[in-house]
# Entry
Amino acid sequence: MKGFFLLLFSFSVFIGHTQDLLIKHINIIDVNNNEIQYGRTILISNGKIQKISKRSIKTNNAVVINGKGKFIIPGLWDMHVHTADSSYLKLFIINGVTGIRDMGGAAINANNGCESIGLEKLMIWRKLIQSGLLIGPRMFFSGPPVSNTGWPTSININTPESAQNAVRKLKELGVDFIKVYEDIPLDTYLALAKEAKASGLSIAGHVPVKTVSLIEASNAGHRSIEHIRDPLLLCFTDNREEVLRFFKEDDWSKTDIEWGLKQFEQNADVIQAFKKNKTWLVPTLTVEWAKVAIRDSLFVNSERRRILPESVREAFDNYVAKKLILTSKERKSDSLWWATQKLLVKKMHQERIPFMAGTDCACEGGIPGYSLHKELELFVDAGLTPFEALQTATINPIKFLNMTDSLGTVEIGKIADLVILDRNPIENISATQLIFSVIKNGQLISKKHIKRIKEDLSTYENIR
# Structure
């Protein structure tokens, strides 16, 4: 706790009075229309974009930013994170991630990084961010997930009545949506979805595939499906021979193949349900890529990871150790699944099923903030254009959250959550990493400030 308040104090240097900002000669990326507005001047005041002009704008006492040769985009969003430590908040911001959707948990401490800290602490952090006392992203969270696994930090539901009670409890706790996990009986799941809708909450997360089909979930209002698991993976092709080849290469049993073919035969209906119900996909490619990236020393030994809590680093070390002793057959399966997951993304993109970027950080090697840039690169690797990948972390999350009136584009009247880049991300998506400065709610976080934050985080790691 001492470390947290030291961070709070050090960041107060940058927070407080929001001065007007005047950005000159900047190139605006239009994330709706794949266009660039060259050489614009932007005036930001009271946390919002007040003016955009091809000409100079007169103003008094504004901080002037020379944007010549640079590009400005809306703030980035990571739509699948597990916030387990206050250091994550700053890591998001220095990477241009101005908004997150926390996908739940109720951990007492950071543990392995795959579960969020308890809701009470998340709410405290959000209030501090909203009041300007702490640097961090906009936060949407679910609190403890609902499941039938018996996991101690989830809310166990196995009857329609227990599902209704869970929704009421979560509503009272002030969650923004409900995270669904595993093994929930179909009647219980449907009761959960119905009660959530009546309470003004949406459901998102895992589809409990042992008990609920993708079509049933989509029809029930499951707004976003997280990860690419067996039934969804088998939508990667319309070709029966291709799916049979996948079964053979992955050494599926006869029983598994029979199940898989039944799933495959539903593919067209699954896609139609997704389209009809406007179901979103969050494939969390980075956490899937990690399964084959453990032989990449740059990934495994990243210095950036040392900022994370010790328990998270130890969990990743254990994960790597287990992956390194896999049999050749198991390694082959991991590689096959990873290649097929990318085919699934390409197929669903061709079908115009909408995607959002989410990293599952800091689970299994993910690094808050940094992993989002890798997620965008992986979307491009899977077949999206750089512009389409950029949309998964900018305008798409804002559409999903129904907040297009205030966020998601660089336009007059919008809240000034913005990122200035040294290069054009539409030409090369890796340019999202070349951050010149971040603007959160109209507050400038310059390159100098970003450097200072990194130094403070290093100090925080030493005193944690």
